[in-house]
Specification:
The structure is a homodimer of 426-residue chains. In chain A, 41% of the residues lie in helices and 14% in strands. Chain A is α/β, with parallel strands linked by helices and 426 residues long. In chain A, the strands form three sheets. Chain A has an eight-stranded mixed sheet, sandwiched between helices. In chain A, strand 4 (152-159) and strand 5 form a beta hairpin. At the A-B interface, helix 4, helix 5, helix 9 and helix 10 of A face helix 4, helix 5, helix 9 and helix 10 of B.
């Protein structure tokens, strides 16, 4: 029965029973964490053989003869560039493999726009105002970067096929202060949707008042399929931008963080020849170079896109049941209650949950008090401000299945309790 | 005999003979490189056992229980922090261990000053002018960072005991646009000198017009002694700044680049509690974290300061003969010619060479044409502009001894030829 059709008396009775259930959860003394998109221990074990690829008796020279033990090479050893170029479907000549964090590459590029400008444009720090498009719900750490530079963030509603292009086109056409957009175009964080070909084309083609408008194309989940038979594949923003005559409009990012070992992976940026030349010039000032030994380790372990795909199937076999468990529990407990909706992604790392207005913060606080840490409510919005207070990001991968089930029991109880509280207060 | 006392006829005769010698060098078709301070292959081999410390069967948890295979920990695992705190002689609580490049930490901190300011100061990008003190000769990559932000660099003469403190004190007292100074305080790059206790104290105590003046204390060679019985040890800038009531004035840097594997090492920053708190806040936005697996590898291999010292003695045994060879050849061939002076460092990676005015560029060009690549003349000055064109940085570590000897024969011939050319043109 839908909660919204219940009488006050029915809701009161429901609250009493939910409060009792909640108290019993609290009594368990749980300590469970679904806050971040972290792989579980069994996933991490998949990549341990990688650590044996490079040891004291290994050949430590890259295929072009570079001694990976010494200084030198700013943009990645050839085999690592080839690997990431395959994964990113990009011309290897315009791919740079850097350190362990694609988020760090994005931070550095926003910083570069802010301090140096792109391809001769005015550095953003010299402008009176800079704005950024933020499809919501989105990735909190993206928003954290633009927030840290005082950039005004404009939330853009997400549709089934990507961000609202009508709104975006209207905004960028007339406002040259808008310098960029955050995109997770495939298996988006947190909604799991993949941008349609039309959205990709329109992003590439739209007239922008700012010459230095940049699409930050964080294809973090490009190889993160949950189902073999239901794979998404986002169109290539590079090809679309070139075809549209805007070849410098995008930066593509990817990493092996959720392929091999998070924090000990390799990350890459792909862009136009002009953008890459500018990036390389800056990097030559910014660092002595990146860890080539780790690049070698990855290239030898993963080999190529097929090697990555084989490994990702093993990941999927581990995490697919977790996603299915969460979706089944949500369906069993919340379908037809009228108080919740959620996504059923076929890839990526998250399920996006929508409660009724004014319940997300309360739900997360209730869960926290019962020992279940969720991603903070509001985190999926710029400045952590979800104006309707509805969205919660569920990250099912880290906990073992038994813990996940416990955590979801608590979460669902909290969702119901928060909804009943709000409905009674109406 | 001193070249400067020679008659024109004697110089002409000398030139003819030097040109003949030079032609014979050119005929050898050499390809030798003394351009950068890179360890030689036998040095790199010393750290290969490190690669076996972490393999697929190793315990991959840090001593505080952190799973080094997953996300998390922004400031370094405890054992890596303890190791670097020992090396840097700093309170472990105020040390952060980051990625593979201390230069990158410095770049990020200059960037932070430029974009965010320090501890509430005005971001430098909002100021009409920013200036920086650059002891010369110095490290080209330091100067490259400040140059890239359009910061005006003021050369400060280096003395036997550090930079000219009279000049520095006068400048910083009255000019609040001066925001920092580059220092390599022990076995300086390239002169090899170590700052005296008095210089350290005066840097810490001097009144600065700018509240946000920062000493970038790049103690890159803190453990790089060439002789067991002739060790330098620079006074601690942190203690001096605290004693002077300027606890936030410095950032200390170190890395294992020339201890283990350059490019695949770990790097650290040490500072006051206030500065470290600000750094941690920024880092939480800037990256997903650094490579904890590599931190673990280093901590287990090096263990502690004593472990580092034992390894550095092995390095010294390899490179000391190279320094001695260079110094002996310079002495044999150039002593009493009046056209050259050089340093005889007891640590670090470089010998600093001074020719007569107007000869450095020509010397390096001659050597290059004969197949011997030296550090570019002028590189040791801001904007690569050595106003008297005298200084050349000699980096003896990379070539095997036989090649080093050949390279130095060429170099010395070029020094003489360039000097004779200049003397004849006077």
């Amino acid at each position: 029965m839908s909660y919204v059709d219940m009488s006050a008396a029915e809701l009161e009775a429901l609250r009493a029973s939910l409060e009792q259930e909640y108290a019993s959860h609290c009594a368990k003394g749980l300590s469970l964490n679904m806050a971040r998109g972290k792989p579980g221990a069994d996933q991490l074990a998949l990549s341990l053989p990688m650590l044996d690829e490079v040891n004291s008796s290994a050949d430590l020279f890259a295929e072009d003869g570079t001694d990976c033990r010494n200084y030198g090479v700013m943009d990645g050893i050839p085999e690592a560039k080839r690997l990431m170029a395959e994964v990113m479907e990009h011309d290897q000549a315009n791919v740079c493999v850097f350190g362990n964090s694609s988020l760090n590459i994005m931070f550095d590029l926003v910083t570069a726009g802010y301090t140096r400008g792109f391809l001769g444009s005015t550095p953003w720090c010299k402008l009176p105002a800079v704005k950024w498009l933020c499809p919501v719900p989105g990735y909190d750490r993206h928003f954290g970067i633009t927030e840290s530079y005082g950039i005004e963030m404009i939330p853009i509603p997400m549709r089934e096929d990507g961000p609202d292009m009508d709104e975006i086109e209207q905004l960028v056409a007339k406002d040259e202060a808008i310098k960029g957009i955050w995109c997770v175009p495939q298996y988006a964080n947190p909604t799991g949707i993949t941008y349609s070909d039309e959205v990709v084309r329109r992003l590439a083609e739209m007239p922008c008042a700012a010459d230095d408008f940049r699409i930050f194309w964080d294809n973090a989940y490009c190889v993160h399929h949950l189902y073999d038979d239901k794979r998404n594949h986002v169109a290539d923003i590079a090809a679309a931008c070139e075809a549209a005559g805007n070849p410098n409009r995008y930066f593509k990012f990817a990493s092996t963080s959720k392929v091999t070992l998070p924090g000990a992976g390799i990350a890459a940026v792909a862009a136009s020849a002009e953008n890459i030349a500018e990036i390389k010039k800056r990097i030559g000032i910014q660092t002595v170079g990146y860890d080539k030994i780790n690049q070698l380790r990855h290239a030898r372990f993963l080999r190529d896109a097929a090697g990555v795909d084989a490994l990702m199937k093993k990941h999927a076999a581990i995490i697919r049941p977790k996603f299915e468990l969460v979706e089944r529990m949500l369906e069993d407990e919340l379908a037809n209650t009228g108080i919740a909706s959620w996504t059923n992604p076929v890839g990526g790392y998250f399920i996006s949950f929508e409660g009724i207005e004014g319940t997300a913060k309360r739900t997360v606080a209730l869960a926290k008090a019962a020992g279940v840490t969720m991603t903070g409510a509001g985190a999926t919005w710029p400045l952590k401000h979800d104006p309707r207070d509805t969205n919660i990001r569920i990250a099912p991968t880290l906990p073992p299945t038994s813990e996940l089930q416990q955590a979801m029991e608590v979460f669902i109880c909290c969702v119901k309790l928060a909804a009943v509280e709000v409905l009674l207060a109406r």
